[in-house]
Specification:
This protein is of the alpha+beta class. Helices cover 41% and strands 15% of the residues. The protein is built from 4 helices and 4 strands; from the N terminus they run ααβββαβα. The protein has a 4-stranded mixed beta sheet with strand order 1-2-4-3, with helices on both faces. Helix 3 packs across helix 4. It is globular, with a radius of gyration of 21 Å.
């Protein structure tokens, strides 16, 4: 039996049409540069939290830093989320949500703390809740930056 090659589904593109600029490519990775890695990174956020956003299930703390990339740390305590499967699910959903919103969170070190009540929520509800919390965090950061610019221009 001889199989014929299927015709290409892709149109023939010239080199010029394939050219993509750096601004058109958005990376949604979660490399080491996007994580809080050391205890001192976490201590800085806990000790000097400039922004706090919360709900019944999450507390998000954040500080500004000079690095362009936002960085994320997760604290999912066994006391609040008993089963390892559930803790891993919360971490996975939190990281995924952070990756999709990282372009909005530039210049922030962020720690997400899980509270009780997460285990009863489904994935869609957790993602929706994190979406709202990211928007609140960005709004607070932008409000503070605008306030500081106003104060500096009045001096």
């Amino acid at each position: 039996v001889v199989h014929e090659a299927a015709p290409s589904c892709l149109p023939d593109l010239t080199d010029q049409e394939l050219h993509v600029t750096d601004q058109q490519i958005t990376s949604y990775g979660f490399g080491r540069n996007l994580r809080l890695l050391t205890a001192s990174d976490y201590k800085a956020v806990f000790g000097q939290a400039e922004f706090k956003v919360s709900c019944a299930q999450f507390l998000i703390l954040a500080i500004r830093h000079d690095n362009v990339n936002p960085r994320l740390g997760l604290v999912i305590a066994k006391k609040n989320v008993r089963l390892a499967v559930q803790r891993n699910r919360v971490k996975r959903l939190s990281r995924e949500s952070f990756r999709h919103h990282q372009h909005l969170l530039n210049g922030l070190d962020i720690v997400i703390l899980a509270r009780k009540g997460l285990t009863t929520m489904d994935n869609a509800a957790i993602v929706q809740l994190l979406e709202k919390l990211w928007q609140d965090l960005v709004r607070r950061r932008d409000r503070q930056v605008a306030h500081q610019v106003t104060n500096q221009s009045n001096k």
